[in-house]
């Protein structure tokens, strides 16, 4: 049996077994690309506020957000934006480790918007049931808990990479002159729909191939740790992982008397150190033994995450314990950090998002056109032979 014949059979049966998952992941990916723009528009009355000159302390805003959801729920992150016309944003989240589906796994997920000048809680939004959040989790893990859903999505994505590469080999014409004909829709009024469907499958796959593989690889970085490690090693030319060790806070022997709350001490340092940053995200200590440090993520530019700074502060004094800035990261770290922006096209701005949107739609069309080719040609032929 010839190589291309074997490849066609593998292409067919792997496509049929993974097609539904690829369709779901690609379609939800195309929908999610512009989630930030739509979310900002739909929530503009909570996100945007009037600059009144003298803001309340960040700690007070955090306290107001906590009161709004009740003490039994936990705020995991608080974000202060440098734009004086933006509200503070606080995120409260808890999950059930034993549950297997998204809706039972996530106990609650709230986003709380607080006016930075008056301290008024503008909105407590149920992010768990948000349209784009559900779309994201369909794309991320098929609405299953990560440990179950992500490997399924990851395997389907690996198969997709094989399908694209094998499809290109099958499609590749023997003569150069045939390239142009195979890259355009040369249809007439007499062209049958089966021919149109066949052309759609082949031509869309070719046009989507380069960007489609980029989307797939960036998706695999999240699905499989080994892919993230491989990307890091390839681009950093090093097998030494970046230093991610947490620096513990020093537990005081006596009660600390701070006239200013530690979150405000931290925030003052961040604003002084990174005055041009888009926003500062504070996370409380994750350990309960009193040694945990306050983790800070500084997003440099609005709408993208490839330039950021990571810091740790003492939870008692607000002293700076560790800094890991963008300028100190090697190229492998920078590529991994830019993974989300590359995946959704944001690394190239709106044009990049448009490309990601169109390519995702093309990818979503491939399982449909591929299944139609098989059903109308091979399946019906097999069915007629049985009878």
SS-based structural class?
alpha+beta
Distance between the termini: 28 Å
- Strand/helix succession: HHHHEEHEEHHHHHHEEEEHHH
Q: What is the alpha-carbon Rg in Å?
A: 25 Å
**Arrangement of strands in the largest sheet:** 4-3-2-1-5-6-7-8
Q: How many separate helices?
A: 14
Structure characterization notes:
This protein is α+β, with helices and mostly antiparallel strands. The protein has three domains: 3-32 and 143-238 and 351-386; 36-141, Nuclear Transport Factor 2, Chain: A (Roll); 262-343, Nuclear Transport Factor 2, Chain: A, CATH 3.10.450. The chain has 14 helices and eight strands. The protein has an eight-stranded antiparallel β-sheet with strand order 4-3-2-1-5-6-7-8. A hairpin with a 6-residue loop joins strand 1 (75-81) and strand 2. It is elongated and about 80 Å long. The mean pLDDT is 93.
Based on the model shown, name its key terms.
single chain, 387 residues, alpha+beta, Nuclear Transport Factor 2, Chain: A, 3 domains, 8-stranded antiparallel β-sheet, 14 helices
């Amino acid at each position: 049996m010839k190589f291309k014949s074997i490849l066609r059979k593998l292409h067919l049966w792997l496509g049929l077994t993974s097609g539904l998952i690829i369709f779901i992941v690609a379609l939800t990916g195309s929908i999610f690309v512009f989630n930030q723009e739509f979310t900002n528009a739909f929530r503009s009355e909570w996100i945007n506020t009037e600059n009144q000159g003298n803001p309340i302390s960040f700690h007070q805003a955090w306290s107001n957000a906590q009161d709004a959801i009740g003490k039994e729920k936990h705020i995991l992150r608080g974000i202060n934006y440098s734009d004086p016309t933006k509200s503070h944003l606080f995120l409260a989240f808890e999950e059930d480790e034993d549950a297997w589906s998204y809706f039972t796994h996530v106990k609650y997920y709230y986003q709380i918007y607080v006016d930075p000048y008056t301290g008024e809680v503008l909105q407590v939004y149920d992010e768990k049931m948000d349209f784009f959040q559900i779309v994201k989790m369909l794309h991320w893990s098929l609405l299953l808990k990560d440990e179950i859903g992500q490997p399924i999505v990851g395997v389907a994505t690996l198969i997709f990479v094989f399908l694209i590469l094998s499809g290109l080999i099958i499609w590749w014409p023997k003569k150069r002159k045939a390239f142009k004909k195979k890259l355009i829709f040369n249809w007439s009024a007499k062209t049958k729909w089966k021919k149109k469907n066949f052309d759609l499958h082949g031509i869309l796959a070719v046009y989507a191939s380069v960007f489609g593989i980029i989307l797939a690889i960036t998706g695999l970085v999240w699905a499989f740790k080994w892919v993230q490690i491989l990307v890091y090693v390839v681009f950093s030319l090093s097998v030494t992982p970046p230093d991610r060790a947490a620096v513990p806070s020093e537990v005081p022997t006596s009660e600390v008397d701070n006239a200013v709350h530690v979150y405000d001490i931290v925030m003052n340092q961040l604003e002084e150190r990174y005055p041009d940053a888009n926003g500062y995200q504070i996370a409380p200590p994750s350990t309960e033994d009193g040694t945990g440090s306050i983790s800070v993520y500084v997003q440099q530019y609005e709408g993208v995450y490839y330039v950021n700074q990571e810091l740790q502060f003492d939870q008692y004094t607000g002293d700076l314990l560790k800094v890991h800035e963008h300028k100190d990261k090697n190229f492998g770290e920078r590529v991994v950090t830019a993974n989300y922006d590359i995946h959704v096209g944001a690394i190239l701005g709106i044009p990049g998002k448009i490309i990601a949107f169109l390519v995702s739609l093309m990818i979503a069309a491939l399982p449909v056109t591929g299944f139609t080719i098989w059903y109308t040609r091979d399946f019906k032929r097999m069915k007629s032979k049985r009878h």
